């Protein structure tokens, strides 16, 4: 069955599900959207955790929650495939809420196990961010899971943030009042500037992986990253470099005093049990 064969490669080749005609969906994609409707209630979603590492100390300062879909027929499906579908269909609201609760519960469990406190970072999609109940939903989930707000970090992409700066400022202000930490994700891809973001109550700036990839091959990119780190620090932000894969990249980031890194050089996203092991081993070594 050709459809199923294609479906098996979902995680790696998601482009093949989109036909060349703009916005037309292949039958596979339509089927996928249908089964996504039941993914939450059938408990098919899983959260992986990718450690964020402090360059100087080597300590794990946070974990980013990254959702996967364990589909019984198709195996593990990457978020790049189903998050866009979820976003378009509105399913992102229940899915996003599920991820948020799972991540808060996990962080609470780590704390209760006596592991050093860290923040758990959760991605908010554009539609989630614009949902009028977002602030109360976050507050309710923190109460339900008994996680202290300062151990939760919410990530919005640069383009989500700048789509309507006044609106963004309002929502972030309310979240910040609650004690939640706030991050700009994929920084550098939204064609904004740090000066436009300076009015937002942010804690963390995540430099997009596309910059890190060119860091050691394009000297102009190195200059840009250095400028982002310098300016970001002057604005009181923590800087995280995304997608660090090579020692040379790390060396450069260290030389410009970037605080944190996330990337395969240290850890890939890990299932919760593996992430727990990593935290436990760190503590005893
Ligand atoms: P993101 O938020 O920018 O997450 C970082 C992505 O980069 C993750 O892909 C991570 O596995 C990958 N990554 C980290 N380090 C490296 C590296 O060294 N090399 C390479 N090649 N990749 C690295 P993932 O888990 O497939 O997630 C992709 C995107 O899907 C995320 O990008 C985020 O936009 C979205 N996503 C994931 N989980 C959620 C979620 O729960 N809610 C929402 N709204 N979006 C999510
Ligand atoms: Ca992210
Ligand atoms: Ca990112
Ligand atoms: Ca990204």
From TrEMBL:
Residues 29-283 form the EAL domain. It comes from the Bacteria. This is Diguanylate cyclase/phosphodiesterase with FHA and GAF sensor. It comes from Anabaenopsis circularis NIES-21. The chain holds residues 593 to 877 of 883 of the full protein.
């Amino acid at each position: 069955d050709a459809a199923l064969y294609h479906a098996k490669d979902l995680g790696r080749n998601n482009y093949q599900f989109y036909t060349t005609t703009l916005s037309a969906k292949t039958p596979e994609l339509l089927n996928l959207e249908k089964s996504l409707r039941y993914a939450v209630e059938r408990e098919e979603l899983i959260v992986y955790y990718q450690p964020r590492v402090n360059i100087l100390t080597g300590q794990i300062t946070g974990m980013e929650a990254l959702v996967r879909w364990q589909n019984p027929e198709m195996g593990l499906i990457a978020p790049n495939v189903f998050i866009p579908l979820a976003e378009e269909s509105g399913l992102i609201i229940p899915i996003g809420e599920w991820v948020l609760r799972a991540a808060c519960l996990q962080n609470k469990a780590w704390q209760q196990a006596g592991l050093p406190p860290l923040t758990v970072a959760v991605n908010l999609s554009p539609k989630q961010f614009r949902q009028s109940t977002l602030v109360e939903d976050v507050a309710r989930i923190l109460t339900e899971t008994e996680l202290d707000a300062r151990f939760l970090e919410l990530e919005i992409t640069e383009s989500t943030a700048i789509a309507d700066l006044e609106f963004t400022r309002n929502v972030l202000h309310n979240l910040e009042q609650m004690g939640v930490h706030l991050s700009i994700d994929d920084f550098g891809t939204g064609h904004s500037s740090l000066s436009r973001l300076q009015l937002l109550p942010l804690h963390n700036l995540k430099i997009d992986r596309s910059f890190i990839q060119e860091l050691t091959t394009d000297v102009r990119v190195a200059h840009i990253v250095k400028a982002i780190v310098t300016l970001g620090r002057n604005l009181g932000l923590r800087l995280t470099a995304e997608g660090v894969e090579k020692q040379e990249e790390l060396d450069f980031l260290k030389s410009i005093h970037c605080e944190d890194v996330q990337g395969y050089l240290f850890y890939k996203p890990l299932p919760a049990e593996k992430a727990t092991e990593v935290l436990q081993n760190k503590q005893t070594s």
